[in-house]
Design a protein that fits this description.
Elements lengths: L7 E4 L3 H7 L5 H10 L1 E4 L4 E3 L2 H11 L7 E6 L4 E5 L2 E6 L4 E6 L2 H7 L3 H7 L5 H8 L6 E5 L14 E5 L21 E3 L2 E5 L11 H7 L23 H11 L6 E4 L3 H7 L5 H10 L1 E4 L4 E3 L2 H11 L7 E6 L4 E5 L2 E6 L4 E6 L2 H7 L3 H7 L5 H8 L6 E5 L14 E5 H12 L3 E2 L3
Parallel strand pairs: 18-21
Antiparallel strand pairs: 1-2, 2-3, 3-4, 4-5, 5-6, 6-7, 7-11, 8-9, 10-11, 12-13, 13-14, 14-15, 15-16, 16-17, 17-18, 19-20
Helix pairs in contact: 11-15
């Protein structure tokens, strides 16, 4: 049975309530309600709640989403709901909706993990708030006073303990159908959508709304590709072994110095943490050779050809499976050329630089499962090489380790872009 680490029970969920929501909720959530009831995990930050108690709050705060079921809340006043096959984080304090998962088993594996909470839930203020104000009760949360949406500062000193239902916002404004020019970003199950204060029609479902919205800078007719997670296959044991070895390695191993001309050219366009990394380790590898810190000037022509129209994008990392991480408009975007999609993998540079070499994070976010067995079969690729599928996945080739070959990375990416066409932003 799936469980939540460090779970502290708070109460039971009545059988008639569970039965009434079971048909529109993943069975893993239903099992949690039956076995655990309500309670908290992750040091009190994540709360498994009674959906019947929260449904009136959801109906008022986010009208028009009758199929959504509240499964969790957080100690910072967020809700996690299930609707039409996806988990959505309703981050009322910031006025955004994030898609945070589709596979319930994977979601529960990570939902109480401190790294994910820092990464996607913006829980940085939680620990200092507990230290200053004490642990909030199960029906309480920390709320900013004045509200962030009213211009209040996002400081720990402005947090107060408040009753959760009383903390509900007036509503999540739903004019998302009219946000074609707004910065909408998506990532492997994570879609960030800024909300404004204008009125507009309520989309019939969050999932339907996402299907009509675009990724960053995409025209309104651009398709949004849903990402498919493939089975791990028989090489998961190799990955586990490699992961254990990586835990003892330094984050980055320098290959050569970063050209000073490249640093000067791009330093104003990237976070200072990246500039510091360029100066400290230069061109470098991490995660057992899977991740490469690259020269952005060398990669600029490739990005221009393979990712056209994104003149602000700066190549930061490349991977041994031919992907590129770029910094663009305050986000780290992963250009997953082998599968033809883009998804956002980070916003906070200091956090991203730490977790991007974490084996578990790479397994979860970068689809690097094939890397360890490919190294075992073909040897470690050189700094300017990667493993590439032959035939290309975009041309119908099978996603098997046996179909990987060592190829020149930049040439391989350009070949994919010429044959497969432009990348599309992933909607989960």
């Amino acid at each position: 049975m799936i469980t939540l680490p460090e779970f502290v029970p708070a109460g039971a969920v009545r059988n008639e309530v569970i039965d009434s929501y079971a048909s529109r909720t993943p069975h893993e959530v239903v099992d949690l309600w039956r076995e655990l009831g309500t309670g908290s995990a992750a040091g009190g930050y994540i709360r498994l709640v009674d959906p019947a108690e929260w449904q009136p709050i959801l109906a008022e705060a986010c009208p028009g989403h009758d199929d959504a079921v509240v499964a969790f809340t957080t100690a910072l006043g967020d809700m996690i709901v299930w609707e039409k096959g996806l988990f959505y984080l309703l981050r009322f304090r910031n006025g955004i909706v994030d898609v945070v998962g589709a596979d319930a088993t994977n979601f529960f594996t990570y939902v109480a993990d401190a790294r994910l909470l820092e990464w996607k839930f913006d829980w940085d203020a939680y620990a200092p708030a507990v230290e200053r104000l004490g642990q909030p009760e199960f029906d309480e949360c920390f709320g900013h006073v004045p509200l962030l949406v009213l211009g209040g500062p996002e400081r720990v000193e402005n947090l107060q303990r408040v009753h959760l239902p009383a903390r509900r916002p007036s509503r999540l404004r739903p004019p998302l159908m009219r946000m074609q020019s707004t910065h909408v970003t998506t990532v492997n199950g994570f879609t960030q959508i800024p909300l404004d204060d204008s009125e507009g029609p309520v989309p019939e479902t969050l999932a339907g709304m996402l299907g009509r919205l675009n990724g960053t800078s995409l025209p309104s007719t651009s398709p949004i590709t849903r990402r498919v997670r493939f089975p791990r296959g028989s090489h998961s044991a190799n990955l586990t072994s490699v992961s254990r070895n990586l835990n003892s390695m330094p984050p980055f191993t320098s290959v050569s110095a970063m050209p000073e001309a490249s640093i000067r050219e791009h330093s104003a366009r990237v976070p200072h943490e990246i500039v510091e990394l360029w100066r400290e380790v230069g061109l470098a590898t991490g995660a057992g050779g899977y991740l490469r810190l690259v020269d952005p000037s060398e990669w600029a022509p490739v990005i221009a050809d393979a990712y056209p129209g994104h003149n602000d994008a700066v190549a930061i990392f490349a991977t041994a499976l031919g992907d590129v991480v770029v910094w663009e408009r305050d986000y780290f975007n992963l250009l997953l050329f082998r599968k033809g999609i883009v998804h956002v993998v980070g916003k906070k540079p200091s956090t991203f630089v730490r977790v991007v070499v974490d084996p578990e994070y790479l397994d979860w976010r970068f689809d690097w499962d094939a890397y360890a067995p490919a190294v075992e079969r073909l040897g470690q690729p050189e700094f300017d090489e990667c493993f590439g599928y032959v035939p290309l996945l975009a041309l119908g080739g099978p996603e098997r380790v046996e179909n990987l070959q060592r190829v020149k990375m930049r040439e391989h990416i350009l070949l994919i872009s010429q044959l497969a066409g432009p990348l599309t932003f992933d909607a989960g």
